[in-house]
Amino acid sequence: MNVGAGTGNYEPPGRDVVVAVEPAREMLRQRARDAAPAVQAVAEALPFPDATFDVALAVLTLHHWRDRAAGLAEIRRVAERQVLYVFDTEMTDSFWLVTDYFPEILELGSERAAPSLAMLAEHLDVCRIEMVRVPADCTDGFGGCYWNRPEAYLDPVVRAGMSSFAQLDGTIEARGVECLRRSIESGDWDDRYGELRTQRDHDLGYRLVIAGRPATADE
After folding, report:
1. DSSP label of 147
2. For the chain, where are the E strands, in sequence order?
3. Which of 54, 87, 130, 192 qualifies as a cystine partner to 208, CB 3.0-4.6 A?
4. C-beta separation of 85 from 217 below 8 A
5. Mind listing the pLDDT tens digit for each residue in 14-48?
6. How far apart are alpha carbons 174 and 180 in whole angstroms?
7. Is residue 134 helix, strand or coil?
8. In this structure, how many other beta carbons lie within 10 angstroms of the beta carbon of residue 92?
9. pLDDT tens profile 110-148
10. What residues contact residue 174 under an 8 Å CB cut-off, 6+ apart?
11. Residue 116's closest CA among 138, 90, 144?
12. Cα angle 68, 70, 73; round to 5
């Protein structure tokens, strides 16, 4: 089960059955015709019996849930294992895009309510937490995707695909974009962060949390 599945970009291939759960009709309409079957529902009230699934997957979605504790209880109820791709909230203020150009992102409700790793451990039987470094040529389009290519954030199409920008006031967004543009054109960004352009990958704080029954060797 893929909770908060969106358009289905992160659904794993090669599984016997994958079911997507997504609350937004617009996201459901954008799913590919050959994507996994989907139901419209929220994480806090999953329309499935106990232990329906082997694994519940949640990718960069927990900070949008209205009641994170209830949602975590639900995915634990319907799946014996849980795999969550989240952001470590202790690293929220370490990304130049936020600290230098769009600090208002830190005040968004979704960001302030994002669950910490400690909170997840309170509600799930966490087996391990793995660091997920973002590669230099990442194209997925999430918030930290272009950590070494600041020019990408000047593109309104790129920003439109990021939930944090979608929540920003238009005036605030325009001001931050112009500040970043001037910083790039003047060479200021490269003076401070240019070495990022030479790195193969970078730790921005993304983490893979594996919880529930440990997988066996053949799973």
Report:
1. T
2. 2-3, 20-21, 38-39, 53-59, 79-87, 126-131, 134-135, 201-202, 206-212
3. 130
4. no
5. 788 899 999 999 889 989 888 899 999 999 999 99
6. 10
7. strand
8. 16
9. 788 788 999 999 999 999 999 999 999 999 899 999 999
10. none
11. 90
12. 110
**Rounded distance between C-alpha atoms, residue 124 and residue 122, angstroms:** 6
Dist CA 41 CA 199 (whole Å): 40
* Ranges of H-type helices in the chain: 25-29, 68-78, 96, 109-112, 117-123, 156-160, 163-167, 170-186, 188-193
According to DSSP, residue 201 is labeled: E
The long-range contacts involving 170-176, CB below 8 angstroms and separated by at least 24 positions, are 172/102, 172/104, 173/102, 176/101, 176/102, 176/104
Two tokens, residue 157: 């199409």
